[in-house]
Amino acid sequence: MNLLRHIHANLRPGGWLALSASGVSDTINPGYARLYAEDEPLTGERHTYFSRTERETSSRRPDEAAFFLYATCRA
What we know:
Elements: H1 2-10, H2 30-43, E1 55-57, E2 65-67
């Protein structure tokens, strides 16, 4: 939530926010199915999980590490 507040406070008028999100992947990736099941009691939502690290790799490019930021919001 703090990330979204910071973005809102600093985004210039007419500015753009690009947000990337993954689709639900439990039917094609057992690792995600496990994460969803483990974290549902904590997040209170199906098909969500907490990131375990800041440095991760892309499923499309497992040999290329990157830093990912995740944000959620609710109106």
